[in-house]
Amino acid sequence: MKIPSSIWTLLIGIVLTLVCLWYGQNHGLLPTAASDEANLVDGLFNAMITVSLGVFLLVEGILIYTAFRYKRRAGDNGDGPPIEGNVPLEILWTIIPTVIVIGISVYSFEVYNEIGGFDVHGGHQMSMSQKSPLMSGTAIAATLPDTVNNAKSKGNPQKPAELVVNATGLQYAWIFSYPDSELTSGELHVPIGREVQVNLTANDVIHAFWVPEFRLKQDAIPGRETRLRFTPRVAGDYSVICAELCGPYHGVMKATIVVESQANFDKWIQEQLIASKQTLNQAVAANPANLSPDEFLAPYTQKMGIQSAIIHQVHM
Ligand code: CUA
After folding, report:
1. Is the CB of 37 under 6 A from ligand 1?
2. How far does the centroid of ligand 1 lie from the alpha carbon of residue 197, in Å?
């Protein structure tokens, strides 16, 4: 008994769909999703993987099948039948990609809006008093247009986040400061489940704050403040990676971000505050005139997680 081709098409379609749906959830291509935003982005990524795999398997499957099924038989030197045009087929293969592309556009727009993508560009230009003297040559940054688009966002961008951290990028390190506790550190600690707002700026050139586990990336621009909001969800040590080529040591510009419980976070803040007081006392006790810049900065740079090799690069 011969199985009709329509049944075969249906069966292959079902198997193909199941394979794509399974792989879309189990591709394992991304690192841990450690924030609420990461889960939103992963939903979009998984949907795109599902669709892409379906298109890939369909196109490659038909290509390989026809290459074998319709290859030239021995002794066949004739031309193939002249087939030209098939309006229903052409409409079909125009409509399907159109629907897919529009669907992905709407979905990605939705995710971008939800993670505050339309807020983060609303960074304001700093007043002159906020500008660091290092930035005298960076007037070009002030000419960038402001693309504030807060009105469209769902969340209330004016509502302050539960924790605010200021991050400054400089060749080649990140420096984080906690305005609430007047603490400065080379390590970024954030408590689980609380919304964090990072205000970003740069001292010298453009850097970019990127945490792959959060699926978030934002430029740090001299003379401007940009923002990033996220809610960390999974405890662990991750890396803040500079994602903008900022000089010869761009590749080593990394900082640790620690996602931890509220109790551990509070403990860390206290420890850092005590430690910074001690360093201050030591600094007062030693006469800085007798020390080389490296020696003088060592206690600070160690705490801030800056390697001494980087200090050598900085001209003092
Ligand atoms: Cu900073 Cu690359």
Report:
1. no
2. 21
| Side chain identity at residue 97, one-letter code | P
What is the Å distance from ligand 1's center to 71 Cα? 54
Tokens for 306, please give them.
């800056």
Ligand 1 lined by 303 (C-beta under 6 Å): no
Model pLDDT for residues 70-79, shown as the tens digit of each residue: 888 888 888 8
Report residue 274 as tokens: 């005590």
Q: What pTM, to 2 d.p., does this model score?
A: 0.70
Taking alpha carbons only, the member of 212, 176, 186, 194 closest to residue 265 is 194
For residues 260 and 193, give the distance between their C-alpha atoms in angstroms, rounded to a whole number: 9
Is the predicted pLDDT of residue 312 greater than 80, yes or no? no
Please work out whether the CB of residue 250 comes within 6 Å of at least one atom of ligand 1.
yes
pLDDT at 284: 61
Task: Return d(Cα 42, Cα 111) in angstroms, integer.
Answer: 10
User: Which residue's CA lies nearest to atom 1 of ligand 1?
Assistant: 207
Confidence of residue 128 (pLDDT cuts 50, 70, 90): very low
Tell me if 242 CB under 6 Å of ligand 1: yes
pLDDT-derived band at 155 (thresholds 50, 70, 90) equals very low
The answer to whether residues 224 and 245 touch, using CB atoms and an 8 Å cutoff, is: no
The continuous run of DSSP H or E covering 109 comes out as: helix 87-114
Cβ of 170 below 6 Å from ligand 1:
no
Amino acid at 113: N
